[in-house]
Structure formats: structure tokens, C-alpha cells
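Fresh eyes needed here. Kindly weigh in on this sequence plus C-alpha cells:
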Amino acid sequence: MAIQSWSHIGICCSDLDRSTAFYVNVLGFRELFTMDLGPEFAATMEIDGQFTSRMLARPDMRLELVRWTTPDGVGDRERRAMNQFGFTHLAFRVEAIDDLWELAEQYGGTAQRHTVSRMEGAGGSVTGAVYLTDPDGVRIECMAGVPDLSTL
């Protein structure tokens, strides 16, 4: 098989330091490295310009923050509709769905409190979910009471 392993998820951001602070302080990532890139990746990026790439990591995933310097990044920085084709959200297991609300807002994100869902399961267990958004509107689902799928 040609695929060797999974590598990372890339997110274009408007403020590299603000987004780094959010992902490090709210979601437990650490910074691996930062590189300034440009013409050498113009074909891959499909943009002739300059950008900074910052790779972050957790034990279970890696995330690349991309900040364009020329040309500027584009977009409305709003949450994408869940029925819009393509990437919809990142998801994390948490102890309680409201654990990260204040921390997310302290670091430029938003707790989307109106998205709280709860479901009672067998034996009185409760599963809960809510969305946060990062400083640029990327949805981040926080799920409590769900199994750890990494063991499967």
C-alpha cells in the first residue's frame, strides 16, 4: 500500500500567535516547529505567495496552522454549516462538555452554548456534546461520556 501513515490536519488562520495560544492552552497541543515557506510550495498550495507553517502536536494528532502573509488569507471566519460538503469539525473527548468554555473564550475562541446536546444511555449514563469554535470559526466538538475509539 502506498500510504505510510496519517500526517496532519491543516488550518488556515488569520493570526498565528492567537491560534497557537488557543490550540496549546485550550486543547493541549505543543508547538513542534515553525517554517516560513513560499515559492517552493506554490504548485502544491495553488497560490503563488508567502506563508508561515506552524506544526502543533498532541499524542493523538498533529495540526498545521498556516498563516498567509502574501496574499492575505481569505474567508469570513464563520462556522461552516454542518451540511456543507467538506471538512466540518475537529472532535475531542472531554470529561464534561462545559470544562473548556471559559478557557476557549479566554484564548479567542467561542463556546457555542446553544449547541449543547445530551442523550441518556443504558444504565443512566449520559452522553453530551457541544461545539467550541477556534479564533477563525473552526468547529471543535467536545464530547463527554463517549467511548475511547483509539483503542479499537
Remarks:
- The chain has a mean pLDDT of 93.
- The longest strand covers residues 110-120.
